[in-house]
């Protein structure tokens, strides 16, 4: 086992990998409660979605851990589930069954692109300066997500955002958690983020901010209402798929998942020290894990499965190999029986982990050549638009549009990979016709 996962080469051990895997799970366990609630708004059975969410996470994380050997966990992605429920079903009026078919088609296309090596080629063609910017941007993004989820940052009609009410229990618990995390990190305590999550949960229960679970074990809901439904339109009513709206749905799922996953892979791998010569080893396998997770997840009954940026919390806790992803997958399997316990892991508890990880990821900014304006512009916009646009993919799109332009204007066109010019038109088309 140690030899397969390259423990010695990566300087890790079972303890670090287990703590890292558990930390990643705790940081992303909220999806087991959130995803069913969001997709239920589209009319899908909540119990079935809960099971589909856990199973999709298990499949994706196992493939990532065993095949790609990266400490990255997968699960149905936030943002895409909201797009599924409120745009595809709500605004477009497309039945949720057909929506799942759209996810299935995007997954099949992902698989084909991964098998041909196109996705891996694109990732390796991205200049190292933009990879650093993507890493920093994701750091800012997940910090903002953490602060927003905990109520430390809230919406404001006059200033767009402002500080929240620190007298509220959830917000105060998150602040206490951040203080604990900072102290433990400064003192270089091993597993600081994991300890913070556990400590915050206990403090929240004692203070009455977090409800003590009424039960520990519950029966697993039936997945029958959603299982295989994605295939029904293909088998029985294929003509219903031959329209522009369905094409837009598939393209949107394709675009967002492709570049969300690419950005997450680059950021997590860079933070774990796994990027070699500006290339991501076994990138094709990692992308295949994402593609298979999406395809399997759609058949089970959930929206697009993607690599989770919360995996950086596990990396910060010590994870370096695919064994951590296997641990996370195992915990998702166990969670099928212990949903009442997981339900108490709130955004206030996970916020400190996201803030600390954000701080660690922004350190990549030191590697960007800020004195070269043609580099600084796309790097800055990539980093800035992720939190402001509330989308990793949008940040990548804006930065990748500006990079070829500034490099051309600076007379450095030969330094730009030809794929970056193609991506320029792809992203431009996305903003004009799709988004």
TrEMBL record:
<feature type="transmembrane region" description="Helical">
    <location>
        <begin position="166"/>
        <end position="186"/>
    </location>
</feature>
<feature type="transmembrane region" description="Helical">
    <location>
        <begin position="193"/>
        <end position="210"/>
    </location>
</feature>
<keyword id="KW-0813">Transport</keyword>
<keyword id="KW-0472">Membrane</keyword>
<feature type="transmembrane region" description="Helical">
    <location>
        <begin position="21"/>
        <end position="42"/>
    </location>
</feature>
<feature type="transmembrane region" description="Helical">
    <location>
        <begin position="388"/>
        <end position="409"/>
    </location>
</feature>
<keyword id="KW-1133">Transmembrane helix</keyword>
<keyword id="KW-0812">Transmembrane</keyword>
<dbReference type="Pfam" id="PF00860">
    <property type="entry name" value="Xan_ur_permease"/>
</dbReference>
<protein>
    <submittedName>
        <fullName>NCS2 family permease</fullName>
    </submittedName>
</protein>
<dbReference type="InterPro" id="IPR026033">
    <property type="entry name" value="Azg-like_bact_archaea"/>
</dbReference>
<dbReference type="InterPro" id="IPR045018">
    <property type="entry name" value="Azg-like"/>
</dbReference>
<feature type="transmembrane region" description="Helical">
    <location>
        <begin position="100"/>
        <end position="118"/>
    </location>
</feature>
<keyword id="KW-1003">Cell membrane</keyword>
<feature type="transmembrane region" description="Helical">
    <location>
        <begin position="349"/>
        <end position="368"/>
    </location>
</feature>
<feature type="transmembrane region" description="Helical">
    <location>
        <begin position="130"/>
        <end position="154"/>
    </location>
</feature>
<comment type="similarity">
    <text>Belongs to the nucleobase:cation symporter-2 (NCS2) (TC 2.A.40) family. Azg-like subfamily.</text>
</comment>
<dbReference type="InterPro" id="IPR006043">
    <property type="entry name" value="NCS2"/>
</dbReference>
<feature type="transmembrane region" description="Helical">
    <location>
        <begin position="416"/>
        <end position="433"/>
    </location>
</feature>
<feature type="transmembrane region" description="Helical">
    <location>
        <begin position="244"/>
        <end position="268"/>
    </location>
</feature>
<feature type="transmembrane region" description="Helical">
    <location>
        <begin position="48"/>
        <end position="67"/>
    </location>
</feature>
<feature type="transmembrane region" description="Helical">
    <location>
        <begin position="321"/>
        <end position="342"/>
    </location>
</feature>
<feature type="transmembrane region" description="Helical">
    <location>
        <begin position="74"/>
        <end position="94"/>
    </location>
</feature>
């Amino acid at each position: 086992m140690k030899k397969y996962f390259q423990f010695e080469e990566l300087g890790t051990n079972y303890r670090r990998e287990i703590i890292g895997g558990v930390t990643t799970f705790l940081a992303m366990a909220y999806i087991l409660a959130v995803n069913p609630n969001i997709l239920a708004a589209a009319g899908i059975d909540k119990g079935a979605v809960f099971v589909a969410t856990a199973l999709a996470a298990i499949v994706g994380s196992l493939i990532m851990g065993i095949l790609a050997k990266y400490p990255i966990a997968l699960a149905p992605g936030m943002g895409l589930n909201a797009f599924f429920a409120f745009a595809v079903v709500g605004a477009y009026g497309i039945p949720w069954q057909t929506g799942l078919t759209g996810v299935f088609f995007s997954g099949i296309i992902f698989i084909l692109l991964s098998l041909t090596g196109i996705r891996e080629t694109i990732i390796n063609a991205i200049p190292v300066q933009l990879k650093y910017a993507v890493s920093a941007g994701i750091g800012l993004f997940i910090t903002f997500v953490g602060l927003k989820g905990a109520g430390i940052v809230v919406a404001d009609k006059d200033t767009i955002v402002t500080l929240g009410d620190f007298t509220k229990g959830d917000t105060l618990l998150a602040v206490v958690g951040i203080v604990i995390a900072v102290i433990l990190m400064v003192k270089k305590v091993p597993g600081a983020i994991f300890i913070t999550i556990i400590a915050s949960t206990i403090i929240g229960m004692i203070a009455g901010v977090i409800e003590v679970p009424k039960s520990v074990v519950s029966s697993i809901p039936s997945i029958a209402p959603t299982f295989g439904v994605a295939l029904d339109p293909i088998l029985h009513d294929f003509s219903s798929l031959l329209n522009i709206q369905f094409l837009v749905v598939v393209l949107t799922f394709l675009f967002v998942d492709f570049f969300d996953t690419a950005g997450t892979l680059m950021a997590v791998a860079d933070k774990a020290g796994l990027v070699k010569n500006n290339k991501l080893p076994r990138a094709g396998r990692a992308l295949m894990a994402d593609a298979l997770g999406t395809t399997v997840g759609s058949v089970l009954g959930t929206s697009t499965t993607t690599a989770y940026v919360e995996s950086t919390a596990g990396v910060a806790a010590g994870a370096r190999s695919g064994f951590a992803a296997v641990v996370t997958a195992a915990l998702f399997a166990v969670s099928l029986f212990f949903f009442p316990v997981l339900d108490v892991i709130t955004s206030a508890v996970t916020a400190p982990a996201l803030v600390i990880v954000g701080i660690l990821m922004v350190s990549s900014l030191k590697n960007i050549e800020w004195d070269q304006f043609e580099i600084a512009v796309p790097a800055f916009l990539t980093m800035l638009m992720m939190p402001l646009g509330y989308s990793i993919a949008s940040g990548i799109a804006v930065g990748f549009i500006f990079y070829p332009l500034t490099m051309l204007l600076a007379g450095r066109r030969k330094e730009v990979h030809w794929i970056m010019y193609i991506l320029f038109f792809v992203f431009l088309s996305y903003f004009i016709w799709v988004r």
